[in-house]
Amino acid sequence: MANILTLIRVTDANSLGNLIPAYKVVQQMADTYERIKLGHKRWKVVIQRAALIIKELHGNSHKDQISVSSITELQKNLEEIQAVLQKLADMPFFKALLRFEDINSGIDRANRHLDDCQRVFQIESSLPAQSQSKAAMSDRDALRGLLRIVVGNYEEIRRRFGIHNDEQEGQAMVAMEREVKNAKMTDEDAPLEVQVMKRSLECIKTTTGRNVPKQNKWLITEYDLDFCGTIGGGGFSTVSKARFKGTMVAVKTLKDVGLGNMREALEGEIDIWSELRHDHIVPFYGASTLTSPFYIVSRYMQNGNLVQYLAMTPNTDRTRLVSEVSLGMYYLHEKSIVHGDLKGVNVLVDDAGMACITDFGLSKVYSSRTAGAKTGKIAGTLRFLAPEALMGHPLSFETDVYAFGMLIYEVFAGEIPFMGEPDDLVWEGRVDLHRPTSSKVYERGFNEALWQLLSDCISREPNARPRFKTIQEHLCSIKKVESSAQSVYPSKI
User: Fold this and answer.
1) For residue 394, is the peptide bond before it cis, meaning its omega torsion is within 30 degrees of 0?
2) Residue of 224, 341, 350, 400 with catalytic role
3) CATH architecture group of domain 306-488
4) Which residues form the Protein kinase domain (predicted)?
5) CA pair distance 106, 131, nearest whole angstrom
6) CA angle, corner 202, sides to 245 and 87, nearest 5?
7) Residue 440 labeled ligand binder
8) How far apart are CA 165 and CA 404, in angstroms?
């Protein structure tokens, strides 16, 4: 596309004065335009409109009287348009085709921003009134051309859609079938982008003899996600932030450690999570086991996990947090679900500061790796495993209670249990957990009652450990005593 200075009809950007920042954004838009995959003509009109607004303002004899706030508002509108354009430019072609409605809404939103700018500055559009309608017709013609190209052309479909293997092909087939079904229209009425997907899907099925892979009700394909970067990880997974239907989510990608053989077990655990609804269980949005590596999508919690949250807010009510964890665990056990890997990093904190349990059941999928052999990869989990689990017995309600006792220790002591002890001694059960003596631990709310509860939870005899119903009753009593003490001896401000 033409250099923006040419559109503005100036030779030196420095002559634009206080419009230079706005000009730079429009130039960015022009550069980004080269990488968009669909909607070219309409986006070109958007960029031309933006450039002509700057041209009109620059040619205004009263431009020095334009308020700073108006220029700032112009800058903001242009930056929002550039952000949308950048997002679309970063999409591969097939993802852009699936998101064609997003392209249309992005263009509409961009034009509304420019309409607002023209109203603020009282500028008449210098583009012909029919420019946008002509651009829309040209974009539709481009889609018709694409439709003619892909009909019956299997290799061209794979090339354009970025399909390089059977897994990717299966995922693309699922995505196309879903879009076609959602359209609920006849061939004549369906939008051109839907017709392209319908014909492409038919061609793939005819050429390969493949059926569309099974779709789980919780399926979220990678085409549905806009990734925003990695935010954490551990021995078995990495966690990324992403947008899904306008909502920020966390995507846990499971590292490829033979999961192909564990697909059925993982899908079973995902089925269970998808049915859970509780204030102290992290909300589940979906997952994918179509392509490797597999991933799970849940609500993004900006406060991070319990360990991170306590580091950021050291004066928070820790008894309340462990009580909330016990409520979530009671709910899981009532549903006959064993967590298997309860610890601080597997408890997230929502925007309201409430504890929410995550990652339950994944330990079952990885059971041969988490409880069957000594491995440094699970050192963090090792210190939360009950003695019977270390001896190879299956994870159970009782091992969850043991881990909860260790979680109480972690929350109040500010460190994992047996910190500093060699792994071998912990594996062999040759170390005992000692009561914390630091004054800081007691300032955080730790007391005799919590130590007694913790001790009961980590009893070496599984049958001697309390159930979560009993644990919750004890914690309620502890909270009542704390509340009574605070009312009698209010803290000084």
Assistant:
1) no
2) 341
3) Orthogonal Bundle (1.10)
4) 225-477
5) 17
6) 30
7) no
8) 44
